[in-house]
């Protein structure tokens, strides 16, 4: 089949409406700001009240009740969603020998379990309307083991594969799904991890070719780009880590 230049290609544009989970966190707040600056009406959801240029702020625990209700509340506030950026995540460090079933379930449910019903609910409406964008915030921990975070690493690895699976199944409905894989980003959540032992932060910076931590705004730029287009990028995992993941120097 011969396709003329530009045939079948949609024009990239900022989403009219978007839901951002984890909107009170470092990355989530930056994503809210990036989308809002592009003219998107953003609904933010978090345990703490999200702030910034929001059309609506929702508070609640994704582990209590059905996460699909968050999508419904967002659409009640701003109408049909064009984009979902799922930033909610995290977890406390605990060794595998000390980890309880409760520790495991809480972290896996937050970082992976809640993602599916959120994406499913948002994608159903997007599919009916012929298009939309799902953006998942993964982690380099989903590719490289991090001591004390087996539950988090496993969940983020699963999240990246969930993103690929959603991309494959939803493409025919015009819905794209991409995952961002951040490395060490300068957020309050990461402070506890990087400062957990003497020299931990210094060792990470030495290992990172960029020689510094990433900023939430640098992740948000990628999230906004994926939410706006390009329309032929689907099922991708965009690594934002300053080169940490490819450094192999002994």
Describe the structure.
With 250 residues, this protein is of the alpha/beta class. 42% of the residues are buried. A seven-stranded parallel beta sheet has the order 3-2-1-4-5-6-7, with helices on both faces. Helices cover 40% and strands 15% of the residues. The chain has helices spanning 26-37, 68-78, 101-113, 115-129, 150-170, 188-194, 200-207, 216-228, and strands spanning 17-21, 41-46, 56-59, 83-86, 132-137, 175-182, 237-240. It has a single domain, classed as NAD(P)-binding Rossmann-like Domain (Rossmann fold, 3-Layer(aba) Sandwich), CATH 3.40.50. It has eight helices and seven strands, in the order βαββαβααβαβαααβ. The radius of gyration is 18 Å and the shape is globular. It starts with 16 loop residues before the first strand and ends in a 10-residue tail after the last strand. Helix 1 (26-37) packs across helix 8 (216-228), helix 3 (101-113) packs parallel to helix 5 and helix 4 (115-129) packs parallel to helix 5. Strand 5, helix 5 (150-170) and strand 6 form a beta-alpha-beta unit.
Throw out a few tags for this protein.
seven-stranded parallel beta sheet; Rossmann fold; 250 residues; disordered N terminus; 15% strand
Summarize the structure.
The protein is α/β, with parallel strands linked by helices and 250 residues long. The chain has eight helices and seven strands, in the order βαββαβααβαβαααβ. It has a single domain, classed as 3-Layer(aba) Sandwich (Rossmann fold).
Strand content: 5-15%
| Biggest sheet, spatial arrangement of strands | 3-2-1-4-5-6-7
- Give the C-alpha Rg: 18 Å
- Helix count from the secondary structure assignment: 8
SSE pattern, N- to C-terminal: EHEEHEHHEHEHHHE
Quick one: CATH class? Alpha Beta
**What's the β-strand tally?**
7
Distance between the termini: 49 Å
Which structural category do the helix and sheet elements fall into?
alpha/beta
**What does the average pLDDT come to?**
90
């Amino acid at each position: 089949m011969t396709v003329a230049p530009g045939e079948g290609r949609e024009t990239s544009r900022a989403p009219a409406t978007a839901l951002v989970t984890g909107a009170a966190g470092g990355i989530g707040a930056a994503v809210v700001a990036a989308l809002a600056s592009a003219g998107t009406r953003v609904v933010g959801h978090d345990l703490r009240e999200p702030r910034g240029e929001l059309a609506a702020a929702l508070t609640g625990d994704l582990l209590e009740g059905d996460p699909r209700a968050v999508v419904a509340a967002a659409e009640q506030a701003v109408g049909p969603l064009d984009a979902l950026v799922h930033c909610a995540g995290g977890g406390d460090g605990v060794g595998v020998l000390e980890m309880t079933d409760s520790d495991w379930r809480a972290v896996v449910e937050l970082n992976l379990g809640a993602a599916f019903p959120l994406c499913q609910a948002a994608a159903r409406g997007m599919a009916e309307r012929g298009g939309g964008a799902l953006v998942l915030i993964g982690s380099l921990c989903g590719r490289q083991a991090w001591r004390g975070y087996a539950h988090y690493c496993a969940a983020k690895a699963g999240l990246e594969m969930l993103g690929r699976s959603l991309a494959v199944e939803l493409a025919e409905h015009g819905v794209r799904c991409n995952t961002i894989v951040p490395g060490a980003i300068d957020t309050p959540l990461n402070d506890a991890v990087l400062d957990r032992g003497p020299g931990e932060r210094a060792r990470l910076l030495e290992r990172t070719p960029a020689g510094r931590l990433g900023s939430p705004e640098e992740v948000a730029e990628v999230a906004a780009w994926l939410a706006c287009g390009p329309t032929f990028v689907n099922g991708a995992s965009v690594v934002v880590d300053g080169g940490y993941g490819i450094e192999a120097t002994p």
